[in-house]
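[job 4471] stage=fold_predict status=RUNNING
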Amino acid sequence: MSAEPQTSQEQTEGKPDASQPMLIVDNVSKSYGTLLALDGVSLQADGDILGLLGANGAGKSTLYRSILDLTACDSGTIRIAGYDVGKHSVEARRLIGYLPEELHLYDRLSGWEHLELVAGLKDLDNRAERQDWLDYFGLADRRNVLVGEYSLGMRKKVGLIAALMGNPRLALLDEPLNGLDTESMRRLRLRIEEMSRTGTTFVVSSHVMSFVERICDRVAILRQGRLTAYGTTESVRQQAGMPDRPFEDVFLKLALD
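[job 4471] inference complete, writing structure tokens
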């Protein structure tokens, strides 16, 4: 018996689709026992910088883990460049750079060795790029020092380089400013803006609202697992009925009140 012909969806399944938004989160819910961590969350990001905001425990980390398919959704779907992450997580993850809030590095490797290891896992032959990143963040003269001897800021820079090298299609940055000094924050902002212009989609979480307002094209605010606001910072101000207030006040009202 001859096999039935494949549908167009079956033929393209498992292949990136440039016509699709880079990230689609569609009606995603996730519970841990009686705790509803995500409740019907839907959002998109495509070639822009999306701020994923919320108080501690709002569901941001669960959403990040769901996008990475480290946590299985109870319902809903997540697609990255057309990939259903529940069915093609390996292919989807190859497009992602990820900086977790709780950063775990290999303390017995030097900064250079750690980045060399990550480059190998990403199948990158990028010695020059790694050196450029170290120069950019002022780590070149500390590249051969063990990561275990690095300060918090230096460790964060290594984590950022590991996430962003190779120009990922989608970069997930969870609290990237923690531990950085003012100059490093500025350098990170400029590099994110540059990478966004050249095609990387960003999802960034931060409690520094001045940074969020300056860098993000749109924001999504979670409260107890639900999306309470979604849009540009100006449209979110309008949604909150606070058009002339600092964005920090708007965030506090939508995320906590």
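[job 4471] summary: The radius of gyration is 19 Å.
[job 4471] exit 0
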